[in-house]
Write a structure and sequence with these properties.
Belongs to the glycosyltransferase 15 family. The structure is a single chain. By secondary structure, the protein is α/β, with parallel strands linked by helices. It has a 7-stranded mixed sheet with strand order 3-2-1-4-9-6-10. Strands 5-11-12 form a 3-stranded antiparallel sheet. Helix 3 packs parallel to helix 4.
């Protein structure tokens, strides 16, 4: 009788053991799956952990942001016309393939005339972020009321006789003026914190394996540039005098730790090429809070009212350069040494072999412009800031370009 009474309890004990074993198996499978998933995710992050360059470290940056899925409020922006469509397609595709197919940032296109249906349909089909199309106000793409049209015409005639490119092109002057200051105040940029200006002829030649906008935010950078070249001072002979006059009248606007030395001509650093240094605006990144600040607009209006865009041939590059160099701290300006690109005039390529390989660059460092001592300004940028130049800079001067 006792043996018969114990059979149900034996079965129950066996049943409990079976359930316990099943629970242990489930826990083990779950743990293995979680561990594998975590490892795979970490591998994915590591895959896109871009290398830090020598120049990054000299500028106080020792790591690039990982892709954790978060984005900052940022957009690309391009000023163009309907007839630029096929140039724009090439520019957009290069940015998408090398960066934005992964990060899906928005894009804003601005034009002085209505953007047609074909342009909208083609560009929006390529871009993975949200796309907006805007109109530049007529008063921002025409002679300001304080510019004497006849005096401007006589100036254009004189510059044409001297053989300057774009001397008679009024539309070119409107475009340069707009890019230099008015662009960042467009209402379509109201919801963003950062912008990246892309010219229609800009083509990336290296992958950008980190979020450049998040990089700007994490490192408190207000302006990022891709190239600095020597300008032609004959195009803007009064610009630097006008800037000096402004800061003499408004000494409170100048910072002790700015990059004034980058703007000023130095008897030692500029002896080989007397042209002032200027940032390339066709691939630049900026913090909109700075470009919309009162300090920025006070200086912009002072420069604009001098009429230099129309009485001379001021361009966006030198104007952007003096404004950012004078109004920002040096540590708030960053050179993106790992971004490779080309346009109709120049080619820029990272000089570190490891960076080129990691970013799958297709550019030729032997044709890169950055370290040419006569035509470009990276030497000056490094020396005035106390940065040590890359170990192989002498091998990349490319004097023949």
């Amino acid at each position: 009788m006792l043996a018969k009474e114990n059979k149900p309890w034996s079965f129950l004990r066996l049943h409990r053991k079976g359930v316990l074993i099943m629970l242990i198996v489930v826990v083990l499978i779950t743990w293995i799956h979680t561990s594998t998933t975590r490892y795979t995710r970490d591998e994915h992050y590591m895959e896109y952990h871009a290398p830090t360059t020598h120049s990054d470290k000299e500028q106080g940056v020792f790591s690039k942001p990982l892709d954790d899925g978060t984005r900052v409020k940022a957009t690309f922006v391009t000023v163009c016309r309907n007839q630029d469509l096929y140039k724009v397609i090439d520019a957009v595709k290069s940015v998408q393939e090398h960066f934005n197919d992964k990060y899906h940032y928005d894009w804003v296109f601005l034009s002085e005339s209505a953007i047609n249906t074909e342009f909208r349909e083609v560009t929006s089909s390529i871009i993975t972020g949200h796309v907006e199309y805007g109109y530049v106000k007529r008063d921002q793409w025409s002679f300001p009321k304080y510019v004497d049209a006849e005096l401007s015409y006589q100036s254009r005639i004189k510059m044409a006789q001297q053989g300057f490119e774009h001397a008679m092109d009024v539309d070119y002057r409107h475009w340069q003026r707009y890019i230099a200051g008015l662009l960042t105040n467009h209402t379509l940029l109201d919801g963003y914190d950062y912008f990246c200006n892309i010219n229609v002829d800009t083509r990336l030649s290296c992958d950008i394996n980190y979020d450049i906008f998040k990089f700007m935010k994490q490192n408190n950078k207000k302006y990022g540039f891709s190239m600095a070249k020597r300008g032609n001072d004959k195009l803007n002979p009064s610009l630097y005098e006008t800037v000096a006059r402004y800061f003499k009248e408004r000494p409170d606007q100048s910072l002790d730790d700015n990059m004034k030395r980058f703007v000023d001509l130095d008897p030692q650093l500029d002896v080989k090429s007397p042209g002032h240094c200027e940032f390339f605006t066709g691939l630049e990144i900026g913090e909109l809070r700075f470009f919309r600040s009162q300090r920025f607009w006070d200086l912009w209006e002072y420069l604009d009212k001098s009429g230099g865009f129309y009485y001379e041939l001021w361009q966006a590059g030198p104007v952007r350069t003096v404004m950012s160099s004078m109004l920002l701290r040096a540590k708030e300006i960053h050179w993106f040494s790992d971004i490779g690109f080309q346009n109709e005039q120049y080619s820029v390529c990272p000089i570190e072999k490891e960076v080129r390989r990691a970013n799958k660059c297709t550019c030729d460092p032997k044709t890169s412009a950055s370290w040419n001592p006569k035509k470009f300004c990276m030497h000056k940028f490094f020396l005035i800031n106390g940065y040590e130049r890359p170990p192989n800079w002498r091998d990349n001067m490319n004097r023949g370009i």
